[in-house]
Amino acid sequence: MCRWLAYSGEAIHPALLILEPRHSLVAQSLNSPLGAETVNGDGFGVGWYPSTDALMPEPALFHSIEPAWHDENLRELTQAIDSPLFFSHVRAAAGPPIQQTNCHPFRHGRWMFMHNGVIAHAPRLRRDLMMALDPELFPLVHGTTDSEVVFYLAITYGLQEDPVAGLGRALRHVEEIAEAHGVRDVVQGTFAVSDGETIWAFRYSSMHKSRTLYYSVDMPTLQEMYPEVDRLRLFGARARVVVSEPLTDLPGAFVEVPESTVVTIDAGGGYREAPFLRDDAA
Questions:
Q1: Which residues fall within 8 angstroms of residue 127, CB to CB, at 6 or more apart?
Q2: Residue 85 β-bridge partners
Q3: pLDDT digits (tens, 9 = 90+) for 78-114
Q4: Which of 111, 136, 213, 233 has the CB geometry, 3.0–4.6 Å to 257, for a possible disulfide?
Q5: Has residue 270 got a pLDDT over 70?
């Protein structure tokens, strides 16, 4: 449905990952071998937390309905800013219209969220899902995507206190509403959440056949594996990325995230995996 990446580590220009690798996110917007759709040209977005010396309490966002490969502003922006943690997303619309309010990532306070996948029969379920939102959050849903509704539903269920439990409760509620409507296998996707310090990335679907998700091995190991690759010296020891599909063909550089799993990347570059909503997994 879409492609995305999330980076954490030393501050870098986002262009180093969004534009420059052989299989960069912009390259994947034109040709995505592992995606459900080969082309992801229905808009894009970048969300970033400024470097620590910047006085900005919330992440900044840039959204466009242009295809990522066609937008000169994306190139200018990602080469000019630097950030220790950023999200980027290219969209293949599954029904909701192509408009800026439907572009990922979404933001609430210091929190960012993005999704690759779909909530099956979302228009049929939307009224019940929206009615489950905290009344104070209801007017903050500006677009028409199922992804934005899931984000605010997760906040309703406590994402800001416990991101793993909050998103888990939200997706279970989506499944309960879908079951009441006779909809099976409702949740499909990978999800990313951040508070500016930590990234939580989830691979989950109701049918336990989720969209692809990968993480990079730690940078010191990668630099030791490939000392001849000059490009790797542009990254610090804490650099980590979670991606819909690998950005490079280097063997061993990326590892697939297991099905029904949440991965956590902290500010120090540490990586942890844990089961996510596996209690009834096939």
A1: none
A2: 8, 49
A3: 999 999 999 999 988 777 788 999 999 999 999 999 9
A4: 213
A5: yes
Query: What is the rounded distance in angstroms from the CA atom of residue 113 to the CA atom of residue 150?
Result: 10
Reading the block at residue 104, the tokens are 């990922």
DSSP letters along 137-178, please? TGGG--S--HHHHHHHHHHHTTTTT-HHHHHHHHHHHHHHHH
Residue-level pLDDT at 123: 94
Instruction: Supply the DSSP symbol for 137.
Output: T
CATH of segment(s) 2-275: 3.60.20.10
User: Residue 50, CB half-sphere, CA atoms under 13 Å: how many?
Assistant: 8
Tell me the pLDDT tens digit for each residue of 37-58.
667 668 899 999 998 655 567 9
With b for 16 or more beta-carbon neighbours within 10 A and e for fewer, the 134-149 pattern comes to eeeeeeebebbbbbbb
Q: Which residue has the tokens 């960012």?
A: 112
- CA 150, chain centre distance (Å): 13
Can you read off the two tokens belonging to residue 75? 């190139």
